[in-house]
Hints:
By secondary structure, the protein is α+β, with helices and mostly antiparallel strands. It has helices at residues 3-13, 21-30, 43-54; strands at residues 14-17, 32-37, 58-66, 70-73, 76-79, 83-90. It has a single domain, classed as RRM (RNA recognition motif) domain (Alpha-Beta Plaits), CATH 3.30.70.330. The chain is built from three helices and six strands, in the order αβαβαββββ. A four-stranded antiparallel sheet has the order 1-2-6-3, with helices on both faces. Helix 1 crosses helix 3 (43-54). The chain is globular, with a radius of gyration of 16 Å.
Amino acid sequence: MSALTTQERLLQVIVAPQITEKATRVADKHQQIAFKVRTDATKPEIKAAVELVFKVEVDAVTVVNVGGKIKRAGRNFGRRKDWKKAYVSLKPGQEINFAAGE
């Protein structure tokens, strides 16, 4: 891959930050940020993407595959898509502030 397509791929890896009560608790206790990422993303890609987008240094990445819930509407059953969550540990002194609109 050329450098341009690699950078484009990295910009697509992070789907959205996970802003939930659990994610906030983990961020306070373990200095980790939770992101929803593409299901085919790897740990090195996630690390490179966070460093590229947010201009911070990443210490480690932990990945969780989340299974989609089974939902029901009347007698019809459906299933939400599976997705992947990444917990990103930042090096000491690093911080991502989503409220500042970086």
